[in-house]
């Protein structure tokens, strides 16, 4: 295995420092840092690419296949990017009681986001939309609540979803 570390140009020092800190927490077996590093990569880049697997493997002095095996074993690790428009539907109690599960299915169907690309994360074929559940978004009094990218939407109804989708499709 090549022991000369290649640093992809878009990896900033903050990311590398965070990765080093994680690795230092596993002095006995660096291999144990694989999953936390996969999570770190996904947190920064939205999913774990081939490049991510290779970089982590190099960092931990493992063969890429060893990291790949872990990445494919855990369903919460995504191997594809999320959509351009990311729907995050709250599934915590108030929202669940207000119909967020039905809303989730409705959004999935209407965005044609039927392909599961991670743990309960669905992506449309054209890559425009992804739909996933999240926990409480701290607006329980206005359930059901969701986010689209960074914007929060409250008291969501099917009609509201139709209007939002019509707007997004025009962009
Ligand atoms: S339960 Fe959904 S916002 Fe709190």
UniProtKB/TrEMBL annotation:
Swiss-Prot/TrEMBL keywords: 2Fe-2S, Iron, Iron-sulfur, Metal-binding, Ubiquinone
Stored Pfam families: 2Fe-2S_thioredx
Annotated [2Fe-2S] cluster binding sites: 90, 95, 136, 140
Cell division found in the keyword field: no
Cofactor info, note text: Binds 1 [2Fe-2S] cluster.
InterPro entries xrefs: NuoE-like, NuoE_dom, NuoE_N, Thioredoxin-like_sf
Gene (UniProt): nuoE
Record PANTHER family: NADH DEHYDROGENASE [UBIQUINONE] FLAVOPROTEIN 2, MITOCHONDRIAL, NADH DEHYDROGENASE UBIQUINONE FLAVOPROTEIN 2, MITOCHONDRIAL
Classification lineage: Bacteria, Pseudomonadati, Verrucomicrobiota, Methylacidiphilae, Methylacidiphilales
Protein known as: NADH-ubiquinone oxidoreductase chain E
GO molecular function ontology, one term from the record: NADH dehydrogenase activity
Family: Belongs to the complex I 24 kDa subunit family.
CDD domains: TRX_Fd_NuoE (cd03064)
Cofactor(s) essential for the protein: [2Fe-2S] cluster
């Amino acid at each position: 295995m090549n022991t000369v570390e290649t640093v992809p140009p878009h990896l900033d020092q903050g990311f590398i420092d965070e990765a080093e800190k994680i690795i230092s927490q596993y002095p006995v077996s660096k291999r144990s840092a694989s999953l936390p590093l996969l999570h770190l990569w996904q947190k920064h880049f939205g999913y774990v690419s081939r490049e991510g697997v290779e970089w982590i493997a190099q960092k931990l002095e493992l063969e890429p296949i060893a990291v790949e095996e872990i990445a494919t074993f855990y369903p919460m690790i995504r191997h594809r990017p999320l959509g351009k428009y990311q729907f995050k539907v709250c599934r915590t109690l108030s929202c669940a009681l207000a119909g967020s599960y039905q809303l989730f299915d409705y959004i999935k169907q209407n965005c044609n986001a039927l392909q599961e690309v991670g743990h309960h994360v669905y992506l449309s074929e054209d890559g425009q939309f992804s739909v996933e559940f999240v926990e409480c978004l701290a607006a329980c009094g206005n359930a059901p609540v969701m986010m689209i990218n960074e914007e929060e939407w409250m008291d969501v109804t099917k009609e509201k979803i139709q209007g939002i989708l019509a707007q997004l499709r025009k962009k």
